[in-house]
Amino acid sequence: MIDTAAGKDTHVSKDQSVPDTEAAAARRLAEALDASAIDALLADAKAAGTPIDGADGLLNLMTKAVLERALQAEMTHHLGYERDDPAGRGSGNSRNGSGPKTVSTTNGPVTISVPRDRNGEFEPKIVPKRARRVGQIDEIALSCYARGMSTRDIEAHLLEVYGINASRELISNITDVVTDEIEIWRNRPVDEVYPIVYIDGIRIKVRDKGAVTIKVAHLVIGVDVDGRKHALGCWIAEAEGAKFWHSVLTQLRNRGLRDILIACCDGLTGLPEAITGVFPDTVVQTCVVHVIRNAMRFVSYQDRKTIAKSMRAIYTAPTVEAAELALKDLDTEWGRQYPGVIDVWRRAWNDFIPFLDYPPELRRVVYTTNAIESINFQLRKITKTRGHFPSDEAAMKLIYLGLRNISSKRGGESGTGTWGWKTALNTLVVLFPGRLPL
């Protein structure tokens, strides 16, 4: 209508009524959650001797009431008329009582009455048929599993904290929901170019053909042009070699990878040959920290600091020639007492010296696989709780959930950053002209 005093049209459109309805709903919800209403509810619960939580607690009673009311609302929507409404006569379908059902919630088990219709066509959404869990129960089980808890531990945890009887088989089935997700992850497209790729692995015990064997879960981490690290894939194998690595790298190429500038790895049999075979322009760089660590295995404790200082002169040398002189000095001083140290450096030399061609800002990025080792360290924490895995698939499931959990803490889906990346990227543009996407 028209407000003649103000001279303005005060007609309320249909669209305007939606916010009004939402405002009214919000107002009613606020009234229901008002402190005085909650105080009265708590006082009644105390007078009736009803605890706040637990299987017979106030929270469970409220959960039961809300679920049952929601199911009745769903039934009304399904039939198209309210209970006892004459409009339902002759409709061809009607309510047909209800049946009990116990579901697990984060407040504990709740027994509810699920309405039925005479034609058996009602499919509830809030508590679907055959569903026995509502809320975050599945997410809790997955989260515990991803942090290394065994199915036995999760079973005990759910019973102790939530009063939920969940068998180990049920928990295993819950974690199996990521199987399809794993396949999508393992076959997803990757970027065409990764300036740096780190490759390393962790040892795991897996039952294979009736015997427990040692296998290695090889993890490949790619640093994209924005400096973000991404887990490109994980491959579990009992033995490694050029053929295995050629298959891994071919899979990455088939998923869209066209070029790697620097591949940083350590002593993986057949990997350097496979990299140059699939990506001939890639520079293979050994992990300097691995070389130092391997060399230190031959050194007595009292000489460690002195030899570490001598080795530092090798990997901080400005040129290859200077590094060779530093290695010669190390050999002269310690070679007779610790020949194993010199042997480690000699065997790694050809894959180490490309590192010396890089300026300091790039050396800081590629001198170690620590970026991947930090992830491996966290994966070892969750895999060591298992004596062994029943299969490769079970091992992959836990590793994937662990990676997903690490990613959510360390930068999300976009990956984790690389310190000093902008400076390193400018250096890469100069060292590898025309190979980085613009």
TrEMBL record:
Residues 101-110 have a biased composition (Polar residues). InterPro entries: Transposase_mutator. Pfam families: Transposase_mut. Residues 1-14 have a biased composition (Basic and acidic residues). One of its GO terms (molecular function) is transposase activity. Keywords: DNA recombination, DNA-binding, Transposable element, Transposition. The keyword Transferase does not apply. GO terms for biological process: DNA transposition. Residues 1-20, 80-121 are annotated as: Disordered. Required for the transposition of the insertion element. This is Mutator family transposase.
